[in-house]
Amino acid sequence: xxxxxxxxxxxxxxxxxxxxxxxxxxxxxxxxxxxxxxxxxxxxxxxxxxxxxxxxxxxxxxxxxxxxxxxxxxxxxxxxxxxxxxxxxxxxxxxxxxxxxxxxxxxxxxxxxxxxxxxxxxxxxxxxxxxxxxxxxxxxxxxxxxxxxxxxxxxxxxxxxxxxxxxxxxxxxxxxxxxxxxxxxxxxxxxxxxxxxxxxxxxxxxxxxxxxxxxxxxxxxxxxxxxxxxxxxxxxxxxxxxxxxxxxxxxxxxxxxxxxxxxxxxxxxxxxxxxxxxxxxxxxxxxxxxxxxxxxxxxxxxxxxxxxxxxxxxxxxxxxxxxxxxxxxxxxxxxxxxxxxxxxxxxxxxxxxxxxxxxxxxxxxxxxxxxxxxxxxxxxxxxxxxxxxxxxxxxxxxxxxxxxxxxxxxxxxxxxxxxxxxxxxxxxxxxxxxxxxxxxxxxxxxxxxx
Length: 450
Description:
This protein is an alpha/beta fold. It is 34% helix and 21% strand. The chain has helices spanning 21-26, 44-49, 61-75, 90-103, 120-135, 147-153, 176-184, 245-253, 275-280, 290-293, 301-305, 321-334, 351-362, 381-396, 408-414, 437-444, and strands at residues 9-11, 14-16, 29-32, 108-112, 139-143, 156-161, 164-170, 206-214, 220-229, 234-238, 257-265, 268-269, 283-286, 369-373, 400-404, 417-422, 425-431. The chain contains 16 helices and 17 strands. Strand 11 and strand 12 form a beta hairpin. The longest helix is centred in the N-terminal third of the chain and has 16 residues, at 120-135. The chain folds into two domains: 9-154, P-loop containing nucleotide triphosphate hydrolases (Rossmann fold, 3-Layer(aba) Sandwich), CATH 3.40.50.300; 206-444, Rossmann fold (3-Layer(aba) Sandwich), CATH 3.40.50.
């Protein structure tokens, strides 16, 4: 996808240079991306056939299906070859992605944050699969910021910070603390996990009452969901991707296809209120995909800071550029983590930097109701902790916070209550102090409450 500006790349001791992804595949490199690349309308066997060359104009489904079954049984990657991808769970899609690269005869596997959408027990299963692949002679490059995963399956560690290699070695040379210090450098003092103290409800906040809503495909996204987020508290939503959290957020914002139930903000019925009216009333949103939903790519960082309903010095009937720049500089100065230059357009930034811009813009004092998706996604450990502290500070100022996260540790540490969603309905509720990760993961993937 990109060409190096310098340096060398060697495979089996020989220098190589790739001009396209297909060149890399021909050299035995397979990539499992953080965002799945399977085509939902096709079956598993059809998706895998797309990356296999030399099969002619006709697909031998039976032979390829046998190959998939053999690989599945060998490595514990259970998935039906004839299943449509859209009908698979997230864990099954992850296994299909790995099967896809194995069927292409890759021997070097690159996995980018492969556990980000998996439930806890699915993470353990994936790590066991990676260890099995390693023992069979595969070279595995695991990109992750989760130290538990590193110590569970890595033999060697290389640490990148701001695009540079800052150290590395065999896993036995590191402790959890020493690896964190190397990752964070001068910010290592910010590594303590934010443990939010219990909070007392301060009045009505975000309330969903028996909400039923349709998804973009017309299917039911939420089924009679009731969730109460009092002012001054954080309620966390635990769910595997595609189980109703997107529909939940759409209903809160006012863009969901509501079929029944009521939505209230601060005790006021906003069921039929526009998104604009809700934002004017103090709703702030860090969306599921900030790059496309919360930011304008061609605009620069400073201009994106102004896309807020908060009162901004220099923004009125006429814009005062000098005062707007001063306001943007003040936001950057208050940011607890490094920010990109104000003149950079957002379309030139990484996903993590776009996330920083949106977080700094939205997590301000005017926020009464905060809907925040995956606040730590794309951020390093220190920035993640800083964002968590910002969320807790807003809660302590009286905001009602609805937190949707893939990180169960984050949900447990911050939330006054954790609500589990599965297939659009509430599968379980856990008050602060009662969260059992394995039990939550069991409910996230369809297990019954015991």
